[in-house]
User: Fold this.
Amino acid sequence: QAGDIEAGKIKSAQCVVCHGQNGISTMIEAPNLAGQSEIYLQEQLLHYRSGKRSHQVMSIIAKPLSDKDINDLSAWYSAFKIEVTMPK
Amino acid sequence: QAGDIEAGKIKSAQCVVCHGQNGISTMIEAPNLAGQSEIYLQEQLLHYRSGKRSHQVMSIIAKPLSDKDINDLSAWYSAFKIEVTMPK
Assistant:
């Protein structure tokens, strides 16, 4: 079920510190989220919430998220457009 | 230990079918790898190889990878440059 991009933007305030203002990570262990596939993002947040995937920060962050939160955050970050330049 | 981008390019032939020629995924459940953080990519491949993280395809793909393979693949995909345009 597709999320609400505007709601996701608001909810992403807690993500910015590691994943960056523009979805490009500010910490080397944190992944970029900008333009990532919506389904993939939903699945990772569901896995962090259920425990199928674990990380000392993300497991805590994901615990209180509702399904709607997860869909909204995934809709927000997947709405970023990214252009790729491959190495020469 | 930083990997070898050229060696990573050759080794990435097996990744392209899901993660795309330019590192932008061609399958909605597969993540983009283009411009992803090198340390993050290394950690995910190590986790898929060790079983800390599991996926029906990636667990099989990662099993035979050496540490050098993991470093080379991570160096290759993190060498992609990405430009982000945020949603209005």
